[in-house]
Amino acid sequence: MVQDQATGTPLQGAQVAVVGTKLGAEAGPDGRYTIRGVPSGTYRVQAQLIGYGLWQVPNVVVTAGQTVTADFRLQQLAVALQEVVVIGYGTQVRRDITGSVASVGGNDVHEVPKVNAIEAIKGRVPGVDIVTTGNKPGDGVRVRLRGTRSLNASNDPLYVLDGIPMSGGIGDLNPRDIESIEVLKDASATAIYGSRGANGVVLITSRQGRAGTTNITYDTYAGYQEPVRRVRMMNGPEFAEHKREANRTTGNYKCPSTVAVCDSGDAKLFWPQELAAMRAGLSTDWQSLVLREGMQVSNEVGVTGGDERTRFALTLGQLQQDGIITAQDFRRRSMRLNFDHELNPRLRVGSSTSLIRTDQNLGRGDGVYSEALGNNPLGVPYDSTGKILFKPTPDGQRVNPLSDIRNWMDERQRTRVFGTLFADYDLAPALNWRLNFGPDLTFYRRGVFRGAETQAMQGSGADAGLWQSRTFAYTLDNILTFHGRLGNDHRLTTTLLYSIQQQRTEDDTVHVTGVANEHQLFYDIGSATNVDPPYSSLEEWSLLSVMARVNYTLKDRYLFTVTTRRDGSSRLAPGRKYGLFPSVAVAWRLSEEDLVRRTRIFSDLKLRASYGVTGNTSISPYQTEGSLTRTIYSFAGQAAVGYRPGRLPNPNLKWERTGQMDVGLEFTALNNRLSGSVDYYRADTRDLIMERQLPPTTGYSSILENVGATRNTGIEVAFSTLLVQDWHGLRWNVDVNGASNRNRIVRLSSGLQRDIGNGWFVGQPIDVYYDYQFAGIWQHQDSLTALGYAQKPGQIRVVDQPTVYDSVTGQWRGDGKIDGADRVILGTPFPRWTGSLTSRLDWKGIDLSVMAVARLDFMVHDEFRTGQNQLFGRYNNILTDYWTPTNPSNTDPRPNADQEFPLYGDARGYEEGSFVRVRNITVGYTVPDGRAGLFRARSLRIYATALDPFLFTKFKGLDPESRTNPGVPSYRTVMMGVTLGI
Amino acid sequence: MTKHTAMMLGAALLAALPGCVDLNEDPISGLTPGAYGTPAAFNALVNATYEPLRSFYAQERGFTVTEFGTDIYTKGSDGSHKVINDYTAGLNPTESFFQDTWGDFYRAINTANTAIDQAPLVQIDSTLKAQRVGELRFLRALYYFDLVQMFGPITLSLHPTLTPSTEAARAPVDSVYEAIISDLRYAEANLPAVAKDYGRATKGAAQHLLAKVYLTRIRDADSTADEAAKLAAGDFANAADYAQRVINSGQYTLLSRFKDVFDFANERNGEVIWSVQFTPDPLTTGNGNKGHLYFLAEYDVLPGMTRDIANGRPFKRFRPTTFFLNLYDRTKDSRYDAQFTRVWYSNNAATIPRDSLGVPKFRLGDTAVYISPTDADTVLARTKPYRVYTPKSYFNKIFPSLNKFHDPFRLSVNDERGSRDFFVARLADTYLIAAEALLRDGRAAEGLPYINAVRRRAAIPGHELEMELTPAQFTLSEVLNERARELAGEMQRWFDLVRTHTLLARVKAYNWMESTGSNSIKPFHVLRPIPQRQIDRTSNVYPQNPGY
User: How far is residue A498's CA from residue A481's CA, in Å, rounded to a whole number?
Assistant: First the structure.
């Protein structure tokens, strides 16, 4: 008899087999089975059923003519182990996977209502580092899997939507269209994508229809946004004093010797506008004038349904975000239709199509905020009639940011159509052929208009420009899959692929100055007085690939995967276009071993190891050919067009290859209440494609070359626990993720240990801060020493590194001057640790989830400490404790009107960037089934979410994650939403 | 079964499709080095060799490294490169004006080298080819000449870069000068007296530059030893010879009035030997001539004034030193009035000051600002309704403004692209070179007429004779003063002081202000710092100039 271990329920359909023979039987409805005709002997008998762990009974002694009983109590596997996981060019059941593959299901994807779909997996998968690249509405994110490998070629992972590699990224995708996201991290998983797998692969499966009744869902949320932090700039009196001090330093602020401040000095130093504001006690907070309460609203309707042969899913979505800077907004309207039909039992066809339109209005973009920060607080924004004053003060370089907001347009429209068409045919019961065709069309139009009263135009004439591009890309895959099975012990899946991918992009640009009427914006370019030369270009690339993969499972216990892919890329030099990318992986399901099974602790325990080679060819086309650069000169007033050497050709450019080793352990234990995985990996990248800087005396600045090798090593840990299963209806899950990645340069092909010109140092990460080391401010008592460095008290002091050996003292000392040799490696922007913690509580329909993410131990260069801290008495400055003859500050130099950029000023900006941020807090209530009917609904959930509500860090600027320089600040969002099913 | 066959056939067709994919690249937009060898590509390379002139001449970068930190110009209120005037610790190998000049000029040299090496293969008329190579070698010489004056020993490459080498060495100053002279001699022999396309290099330009090269060439860091070595080597004789070839060629004449030289309506005048070309067309003018920006005082915020296109956009970078302003004897020398703006007329009714009854103190078009050359006018400040500044009250925003490059024909008030040609070689300079070369060659009597020709021309009509120097007054120091009066702002000064070993003394004496005290200049500042970028990117040791 075969029963469920926990409930004792008979398990119909369980396969019982006598190991080592072909004898076997299937359990009936009562769980009973009978195997006849077993010769005498001692046997091992096993039973298995999908969703349950294998169970074996050893030492079953069969004697001729007698009936022997062997009962099985199968243990149900964790749901996760049975789930079907997309692995690229096919699917696999979770427990059969040999590589490091992380899945994020739809619920987790949708829990955090972000604009960008990929942000949904932030904090969900160890080793995936996602950083926002900007805070303007519609800005993207930067995703790094297991660190940064390449300097010049792209480090972005490959995104694959429903089997089609998306060359244009997935930023346009509506997050609600996503059913699940799989992240392939180790080389055995990514090697099937060969030349593009080195940075990891993110597989996205879109929402599919299901047979059964037609479901209609309606999702909506609305929320407001506000800056997480603001920068404390100087107010009017603080600014005035800093301006005085800057001019005292240069001798341009003169007062009778007994007083520091006097009217006669002020009268000469300040503009009338400033003096008026000082007398009136006015102080303009420009930041508040450009910031507003942002808003984000989303509405979406989904319809899914179908019958046994036809299924469909349709979603319509609309999202609007008004940024926290006035006049910046983003809108996305999307439609997606998934459809598949079974023509006959052997042939299925289908398609999924997305139509997406995004509109981004950015105005002056990040510049608006920095303009506001730099503006003089003694200037006023409006004149007496309430009109915007274009120049709040006579300063030629500062304009009213409100004027920029009003007169500067930057409108970016993207229309994108992409999808998959497939035919899936069973050539034979075990042999399947699938054809995928994925077209991807993008139309992009950017219109820029800058009125006369903007920072760019400085009051004289308007300009306008139109940038348009059309991209057509497609992927065509032929996939043959063979599923074989030999007895109960051998299972084999073979996948063969033949694939091509091509892309063609056309660009054209026209730019004019002297727009006749400002109300024409960029819609009547021909009427302008001056048209710059129009520009157009064409760019094409293609990739041709074959791939084979074999998955072999022995006794459900030993799993093997062998793959190999051969890619040819048009972007590489002739003779070096093809690359071969093999991989191998083995896994051992320890939980099938008696020793482990007897402990009854683990329902699943798997040890896996893999090694594979992947590539990177994400460089721009035509890099191997060299190029000439157009120049313009004139003779006798006539144009003299020229071409000069632009880029050196590199006929030797070849594949950048990464060999990655991964060892991992996955487990599910304690009645499925604890599961997790631990991975260790080492990825060696060689023939790194990098832009190598050349001495200017060559006449070139750089060349793209294969220049060396890097190594990334790291560990990744993920635990998921069900702390409380059912305590008066309470359920509590906690997930913890952690990852550490270490990156270093192993070798430079130049043979150098230090390549200062490029900032590359063997043994160090490929991105380091190499600069002078801040040592405070020169003080009066050190003025003689300062003089030795041609410096004065009040100036920034940097460390004179000990580069000279003093044979008298036997110690190293500085050489008495500050030069290039005094620069040192200060730190790296790569975090040592990243991690996250997610807690989810459910109680009678009420749920509360909280997620926190951390990036620890990394350095940022805080440009607020440098760029907004020039201390030269002209632009507004962050409030700093600057040095004066009577204030011996050790953090910032004395203001100096002659010194727009304080000497060694950059050295002030290096800061520890570690932070912990509460990423989201969500409270929801799912109306119980019975009561949902009251609202004529099948299901109903309401929720409130706070996104990025809290940030904990010592960083002094706006945000160590996404805003270390002046630009649109990061924001927090508070929103409410409803999900309704009909 | 038929269906099955059809499917298989379809599969076979699709599988065959990849055969169409061509992995060879064909860059359609843009050109690659594959285009070399044709007459069109050769001419394009020649044109491209001219273009980097516009990255230096008539740009802030060029003015700053040649006028700033000299005896005649010091810092105004604005700008990010005051360290170049002050010779403080910030004048270091990362200073962008040196890094960028270095990079742009070596790029230009590589362009010239590419074209020169291709010339033998190109099928064009041999005379024209020799002329084009003459232009290329003239330009290469000019780029090297500017570089060697700034940086001393530098990398000398006379062939194009074909492989990405990271090794580089500094060639001795002498070898660089030998290469420059060889290039210019070729240019002199092969260039026409008059260029068919105005703006291309000519024989006269090559001769003028040769004269200047001989006069400039430094043979010893010690001034006395240098003088003796140059004399022995015949540098002065050569300089005088080449200058006289230009003067006697009959191609050029000194205009009769100094102020006409910079007459915008007549910029291709008889005194111009060779100029960097700019046009009023934004499509062909590149960066434009930006000289109109930097020497201008902040007139636009004063009562009764606003910024307009006729008066210009004041960057207030360079302020004339007291020493410089006092060099002019305004009773007989026309050049003070001719090249300094001292009066602004009201163009903004809104800001005209009013008296206690609310009546405007002056009207549009009346004098709003007067920059007086003498402190005697201090009294006017109390009696006149407009602003009066005298030397005592000049400050870093208000000073007499050099207007040689003034440009009211720009597209808009804030457009930085001026359209004046920038004179790199003009005949008055050739006269002063001849005078100086003959003086230092021991032939003062022969030289005196040359300097006096320039001085007579500069005289206020009727004062010609008073302007003439006596033989006793004809000294090197006076030649330098004369060059300041005549050539101020024309990107000569720093080079003039360095080649005459007078930079240190003159900067210490004249480039300082009461408020900030003495200038920090040190002897090593006669050479500019080798850009850090060059040192960092060179795999062998690329030595820095001493002191930096």
Answer: 12
Does the beta-carbon distance from A634 to B300 stay under 8 Å?
no
* Predicted TM-score (pTM) of this structure: 0.86
Taking the C-alpha atoms of residue A468 and residue A471, their distance in angstroms, rounded to an integer, is: 10
Instruction: Answer for the pair A897, B77: CB distance below 8 angstroms, yes or no.
Output: yes
Which is more confident, B117 or A147?
B117
CB B69 within 8 A of CB B498: no
Paired tokens of B330: 């305004």
Q: For residue B233, which amino acid is it?
A: A
ipTM: 0.93
Q: Is the distance from CB of A634 to CB of B284 less than 8 angstroms? A: yes
- List, in sequence order, every residue forming a beta bridge with A434; answer none if it has no partner: A424, A479
CB A448 within 8 A of CB A190: no
Name the minimum distance, in Å, from the CA of B434 to any CA of chain A: 29
Q: Tokens standing for B86?
A: 């002050």
Virtual CA dihedral for A686, A689, A690, A692, nearest 10 degrees?
A: 90
Q: Tens of pLDDT along A778-803?
A: 999 999 999 999 899 999 999 999 98
Per-residue pLDDT, averaged over B317-321, amounts to 95
- Å between B332 CA and nearest CA of chain A: 35
Contact B89 A790 (CB under 8 A): yes
Question: What is the residue-averaged pLDDT of chain A?
Answer: 88
Nearest CA to A390 out of B306, B254, B19, B354 is that of B306
Q: Which pLDDT does position A6 carry in this prediction?
A: 65
Q: A153 is written with which tokens?
A: 């070629």
Which of A141, A133, A131, A149 has the alpha carbon at shortest distance from A185? Answer: A149
Q: What is the DSSP string of B283-322?
A: TT-TT-B-HHHHT---GGGSTT----TTT------EEE-H
| CA gap A98, A561 in Å, rounded | 7
Asked whether the beta carbons of residue A425 and residue B7 sit closer than 8 angstroms, the reply is yes
Quote the crossing angle between the two packed helices B427-440 and B223-233, to the nearest 10°. Answer: 100
Beta bridge partners of A607: A588, A665
Question: With contact defined as beta carbons under 8 Å apart, do A460 and A481 qualify?
Answer: no
Instruction: Say whether pLDDT at B19 is over 70.
Output: no
Strand partners, B312: none
Let me know if A764 is exposed, middle or buried by CB neighbors in 10 A (0-12, 13-18, 19+): middle
Average pLDDT, rounded, for chain B: 93
With an 8 Å Cβ cutoff, is B90 touching chain A?
A: yes
Contacts of residue A577 in chain B, CB cutoff 8 Å? Answer: 23
Q: Which two tokens stand for residue A448?
A: 């820029």
Which two three-digit tokens encode residue A18?
């006598």
Q: Which two tokens stand for residue A356?
A: 């997406």
Q: Which of B348, B412, B534 is the mutation pick for testing A, counting most A CBs within 10 A?
A: B412
Arithmetic mean of pLDDT, A148-177: 76
Task: Measure in Å the smallest separation between the Cα of A147 and chain B Cα atoms.
Answer: 27
In angstroms, the separation between the Cα of residue A270 and the nearest Cα of chain B is 11
Nearest to A697 among B54, B88, B157 (CB): B157
How far apart are alpha carbons A235 and A282 in whole angstroms? 9
Residue B326's contacts (CB-CB under 8 Å, 6 or more residues apart) are none
Residues of chain A with pLDDT > 90: what percent?
51
- Here the tokens at position A703 are 């060349």
- Counting Cβ atoms within 10 Å, is residue A613 exposed (0-12), middle (13-18) or buried (19+)? buried
